[in-house]
Amino acid sequence: MKEPSVREFVITSSLVSATLPVPGNTTRVERDTWNEMVLEMAWAPPPYEAERGGIVYAASKVATEKAFWDFVEKRKPHFTANAILPPMILGEPLHKSHAEVKAAYIRQLMTGDTAFLETMPATVAVDVKDLALLHIAAILDPSIRNVRFNTWAHFCNYNDMLPIMRAQLPERRFIDDMPGLTKLSLTTDTEQQVELLKKWGTNGGWVNLKQTVEENLMPLAEWGY
């Protein structure tokens, strides 16, 4: 607010700020859809057990983004404000440390460490490069003002990723397909996001899941996972 040179501001929020990506959830996510349920769950009385960690994380995303838009509404800043709400992020890691985080889904599939993966029997994913490009477009494109963008590229599960991995590294033994997986029933409109990817990028839309998984997989193999 105090720096007049700031013209554009983009906050990275999360899909969970709008809703929970769980099987059976049929929410149609619009501009003003909020995940109020996790706020209530996070502030529920003790015991504060470790299992509540995911809910508290989701609630922190809701509270942060709500505070952001409340600031925009009340303070009316001189800069344009936009929010990007990514789902599961896959794609090329640029450093080995990127493979060590809890959300390194492809690395966990490679190593057979499925304990965390089993908590998500279905997902929606986006390539990290598409996500980055939409941040850039939200900064540079003058038509993008006060938007709340969902970046839902691929409704999928791990059994959609494993065949790509097996084909890319046929000499390696991967885990069998995981039981009990499904697909999400969430819906939203991403037409404007796709048009921005076409305008500012070179892929003509979302990076396809095959390319995303392959670009995620190969550096991991080179690093010895």
UniProtKB/TrEMBL annotation:
**Which family is this sequence assigned to?**
Belongs to the NAD(P)-dependent epimerase/dehydratase family. Dihydroflavonol-4-reductase subfamily.
Superkingdom of source: Eukaryota
> Which InterPro entries does this chain map to?
NAD(P)-bd_dom_sf, NAD(P)_dehydrat-like
The family database entries (PANTHER family) matched by this protein are listed as: ALDEHYDE REDUCTASE II (AFU_ORTHOLOGUE AFUA_1G11360) (PTHR10366:SF562), NAD DEPENDENT EPIMERASE/DEHYDRATASE (PTHR10366)
**Full protein name:** NAD(P)-binding protein
Q: Which organism is it from?
A: Paraphaeosphaeria sporulosa
| One function term, GO molecular function aspect | oxidoreductase activity, acting on the CH-OH group of donors, NAD or NADP as acceptor
List the keywords (alphabetical).
Oxidoreductase
